Amino acid sequence: MHTDIDITFDFRLDAPKDKDPDTHSKTLRRYHKLLWSKRLPGGELLELDDTTPGSYLHHRSAIGEFSLSSDTVIPTFKWASHIKELIPDEELKAFNAIGYTIGGMMLFPGNQIDGKWTINQARGCTKQIGDRFDLTLECIRRHYSKGESPLSGVLARYAGFLDLFRDFRGYVEFFLLQDLVAADLSAVKISEPFDNFRGSPIPTGVHEYNAYKSASIAFIEARNRRIVASG
Fold first, then answer.
1. CB of 154 within 8 A of CB of 162?
2. Residues sharing a CB contact under 8 Å with residue 80, sequence separation 6 or more, in sequence order
3. Range list of H helices, the chain
4. Angstrom distance (rounded) from CA 203 to CA 211
5. Most buried among 164, 174, 176, 216, using CB within 10 Å?
6. What is the pTM of this model?
7. What is the pLDDT of residues 87-122, one digit of tens each?
8. What is the pLDDT of residues 134-148, one digit of tens each?
9. Band of residue 10 on the pLDDT scale cut at 50, 70, 90
10. For residue 1, what pLDDT is reported?
11. Taking a C-beta distance cutoff of 8 angstroms, is the pair 66, 161 a contact?
């Protein structure tokens, strides 16, 4: 068990004031290195180094060279004016705090290819995704099944990284994402309503927002438990 990982720790607490914990939290980087330096589905070791200049976490071996960065993947949308009007500030703050625990964090390739968006940048700037992780994971599922999605282009650019996990099952199991997918991995649990990326990813009303928040918190808490048990 990963008894040395505090799944309640808010990574904003050890980042300098007004600095992004994804970049500046030493605890978060240590947790990422500890959790994801492990065997890939094919048996190769993905050993992550935190001393390579210019890289958050780095790997170089016969399987390739990868520069990885952290991303907080569960947005609260507290910046949206209609959300601030609909949802009490204390609820938004509590939701945000849970999102900054390790269960709400992911690693993605951090190096730009041909000067184009990284996966992090694309999922945050693509209007059909709106930084949502359930929608991002659905795009990744479609990538592995040769399907189309709003992130098809960027995921194809980083196919070398995604190929490390062989298939969608390998990716899900490596990053302990089982609680965000169906038991047979045939579908991602997407917060409703979902209309195949045609509508806005930002919840429009109290009911939609509370459903999104509840599903997001349930996923983070379940993944936190998996993280502790995975050591």
1. no
2. 202
3. 21-24, 26-36, 81-86, 89-99, 119-125, 133-144, 152-157, 159-162, 168-174, 206-229
4. 9
5. 216
6. 0.97
7. 999 999 999 999 999 999 999 999 999 999 999 999
8. 999 999 999 999 999
9. very high
10. 80
11. yes
- Token digits for 103? 């269960």
The first and second tokens of residue 58, run together, are 């780095």
* Residue 84 pLDDT level (bands cut at 50, 70, 90): very high
Q: Amino acid identity, residue 111?
A: N
Angle, in degrees to the nearest 10, between helices 206-229 and 89-99: 30
State the number of CA atoms in the 13 A half-sphere of 111 facing the CB: 16
Q: What are the domain boundaries of the chain?
A: 70-229
Amino acid at 54: G
Structure tokens at 180: 């965000």
Look at the chain and count its residues. Answer: 231
pLDDT surpasses 90 at 3: no
Region for residue 209 given its phi and psi (left: phi exceeds 0; alpha: psi -120 to 50; beta: otherwise): alpha
Tokens 């071996």, residue located: 61
* pLDDT of amino acid 231: 80
SS3 assignment, position 90: helix
Strand 57-61: give its sheet, edge to edge: 57-61, 64-72, 105-109
CA 144 to chain centre: 17
Query: Residue 11 corresponds to which tokens in the numbers above?
Result: 């990574």
Cβ burial of 134 (10 Å; 0-12, 13-18, 19+) is buried
